[in-house]
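Sample log: Senescence-specific cysteine protease SAG39.
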Amino acid sequence: MMVRYHKWMAKHGRTYKDAAEKAHRFQVFKANAIFIDRFNAEGKKYVLGTNKFADLTTHEFAAMYTGFKPVPSRAKKLPGFKYENFTQLGDDAQVDWRQQGAVTAVKNQGQCGCCWAFSAVAAIEGINQISTGQLMSLSEQQVLDCDESGGNQGCNGGFMDNAFQAVIDNGGITTEDAYPYSAAEGTCQSVQPVATISGYQDVPSGDEDALAGAVSNQPVSVGIDGTSSPFQFYQSGLMTGDGCGTTMNHAVAAIGYGTDDDGNQYWILKNSWGENWGEDGYMMLQRGTGACGISTMSSYPTA
């Protein structure tokens, strides 16, 4: 196990301040590796791996890398659900906004609990590309710095609807290049916006068909339970609801859905933990069972 640990440290460039910290982290790594090996031996639909989070306890991981905190929505939230009458595509339908050019590269929030900003910006990037034909990587940092609503708490958590509201209040959002990410909350800079939204709507809670209707038309921000060990160490395959709870503590973007060769329906989720988590930064999550609370709290911006 120590050899495995040293290989893992080398792969992820991990160093520790002293021998005591390294010894402590080895014990955490060992416990996680044993859990992962036992889990994978069960032959489930998905596989776990000793990824870059393997020296963190589940509690430490949740504190550093999630950060979804729902609060009441405000002014520009539009009543109703615009995709209410959308005719559902067939059971074997495939939707993948990456193939339509509406999804930017996977980003990495780092040790800042602002998944809410990445989730919201992914949805804005999507609707902006759909309405203008131009895909631009937009600035999470601007949302982090300039959300004056009081509802969002920067790296200590927030809510996508508040992020949409902040973008509206600020007259739009600029590019990531113009206002780059620093993984810490800073002072709001005045930068010319390049994309705007007019409002946002919530998807009816607990209704995966309604969520599918929305995702058929644009990438959607979704709240999820992302703090379980299987979620932390997810590597590939179709994640099922037995691997997570339904507490809303993390946020991602639903950018598509499909059906695998065995007829299992799944969501395609874009996470903000870098490309070296999951399937190049993405997850396939079981659809139709409420897995990880997927349909509890989701919303989307309107162009």
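Observation: Helices lie at 2-12, 19-41, 58-65, 115-132, 140-146, 160-169, 208-215, 229-232.
Observation: The domain at 46-302 is CATH 3.90.70.10 (Cathepsin B; Chain A).
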